[in-house]
Amino acid sequence: MRYLCLVYADEATLNAMPQDEVDALIDETMATNEELAGSGQLVLAEALEQVDAATTVRVRDRRLSATDGPFAETREQLGGFLLVEARDLNEAIRIAGRIPAARVGSVEVRPVIDLRRERSAP
Amino acid sequence: MSGAADDPRARIERLYRSESRPVLATLIRLLGDFDLAEEALQDAFTAAVAQWPRDGLPANPRAWLVSTGRFKAIDRLRRRARFDAALGELAARLDDQVPDPADQDDETLGDDRLRLIFTCCHPALPPDAQVAMTLREVCGLTTEEVARAFLSRAPTVAQRIVRAKARIREDAIPYEVPPPDELADRLAAVLRVVYLVFTEGYAPATGESVVRADLAAEAIRLGRLLAELLPDEPEVLGLLALMLLTDARRAARATADGRLVLLADQDRSRWDRDGIAEGTALLRRAVAAEPVGPYTLQAAIAATHARAASAEATDWDRIVGLYDLLARADPSPVVELNRAVAVAMRDGPAAGLALVDDLLGRGQLAGYHLAHAARADLLRRLGRPGEARAAYRRALALAGQEPERRFLQARLAELGTGPDGGG
Fold first, then answer.
1. Contact (Cβ atoms closer than 8 angstroms) between residue B327 and residue B336
2. B168 plus B97 within the same structural domain
3. B83 touches chain A (CB under 8 A)
4. Same domain, B116 and B203
């Protein structure tokens, strides 16, 4: 089974962190990703630019619109993600618990579904 | 998945099914932590996938997996020590602690499986966590499979497991087979979990089907494992006998379209004779091992049914006697209800009805659908259709399982639409 681990953190907290702590967090994140890749559990991991670099796209009546944001009201913002391969939800949770940013923010674990299987008719 | 017998990946896949649980059980002992052991298990199988197709299968795959898993865990901790110095100390401690696990005998490894079972069923954990932990860690079911089997949500089950593991760590619950003075109580807790899994499989409380064969099969597998590891414990044998004798009736318990068939109406030629023979042999061993406990008594009742060519030819006197013993060994209103039904078979429905009414009169089992269904059946047999209808309706209002509901509705329909009687 594949699970997406969505890593959320408060950008204000991250921005206020001393650089040596940020460096340590980055080092540890890269080491963890390497370890997960080594045990065959990592499909893909990426960190994201902060939300002020985000653009939201919509198509309505065949017209594409692009707007800044989202500038969500929530305290924590999506800062990165890991797509992992795990035997079950508890294994995915265990992996999520090893993501260093989980100590700063939070990780949402979502099972990935196969859209073809979700379709009701062939 | 390719099924070729000599395909190394298929062989590793099969080995994972047979070896991952024993290997995990030993790794938990060697590493002292569930999560660390699960990571080590994962690493060991990843290494196996990389090496075995190239180098061939090791002579003792289980020992290889344990050694490799342990080595990889220590290695992993050393690497993580860069970020957390305490892990380096842990790695050093683990490294010089243990003899090479490959040298350990089968008995030690068997004990590890018992340690795991007793830890998963530790009384400090809530009952639903005990069930989830046992099915996931001992049987190897995924969290999602446990959730499906118990009709709950995977995140709910996952949280139960996370909390249980935190509890085991924080309370420092020892990874051990309980000492002799605690064994009886702790074993009772283990057997309760196994039986709960079995009953949920054999007679699910809610839902669409009469049986969830997978859960019943898992419970029987657990029962066999316990009987192999604790061959002298009478109730371990008694519980396995009970499950086998009950499960032997599975094919006759529902029609092809999922309707429930009562014991009296079952086609006994569809009972599994091998299961009955094995269960009966185990029952004999359980009775000989003494003392005779509640599971053994229930197995003896099931064996008495299994011996009879028909409901009428059943030795009801013996069954009533066994229920008397059971009511003393493990008093409960449900046992009394079953005894009342057996008395009705021996002495006629009026005698049974008096006992059921007495039970309900004491305010016990008023919310239990089977008490009202039994009462309805006795009234029907006594030719009191109005009261029978009322009792069936009450049973129907309380029943959660679809096939049982359909059965009760069918019985109601057979009784026609006359006025309901009192009671």
1. yes
2. no
3. yes
4. yes
| Claim to verify: residue B167 and residue B196 sit in the same structural domain | yes
B91 lies in the same domain as B123? no
Query: How many domains does chain B fold into?
Result: 2
Point out the residue among A38, A40, A93 whose CB comes nearest to the CB of B158.
Answer: A93
* Interfacial B residues in 46-75 facing A (CB < 8 Å): 46, 49
Examine residue B286 and state whether it is found in any structural domain, yes or no: no
Range of the domain at B83: 8-104
Torsion of CA B139, B143, B149, B153, to 10 degrees: 160
Query: A2-118, superfamily in CATH?
Result: Dimeric alpha+beta barrel (3.30.70.1060)
**Closest by Cα among B356, B353, B312 to B336:** B356
Distance from CA of B93 to the nearest CA of A (A): 22
ipTM for this model? 0.89
Residue-level pLDDT, tens digit, chain A, 122 residues: 999 999 999 999 999 999 999 999 999 999 999 999 988 899 999 999 998 899 999 999 999 999 887 766 678 899 999 999 999 999 999 999 999 999 999 999 999 998 888 777 65
Cα angle B330-B335-B338, degrees, rounded to a multiple of 5: 155
Closest partner CB to A89 (pick from B46, B76, B144): B144
Q: Which residues of B152-166 are buried (b: 16+ CB within 10 A; e: fewer)?
A: eebeebbbbbbebbe
Same domain, B66 and B83: yes
- Based on the domain organization, do B115 and B160 belong to the same domain? yes
pTM: 0.84
Q: Do B35 and A94 touch (CB under 8 A)?
A: yes
Residue of A nearest to B38 (CA): A91
Closest CA to B119 of B159, B82, B73, B161: B161
Kindly list the residues from chain A whose CB atom is less than 8 angstroms away from the CB atom of residue B83.
Answer: 24, 27-28, 31, 100
A94/B contact by beta carbon, under 8 A: yes
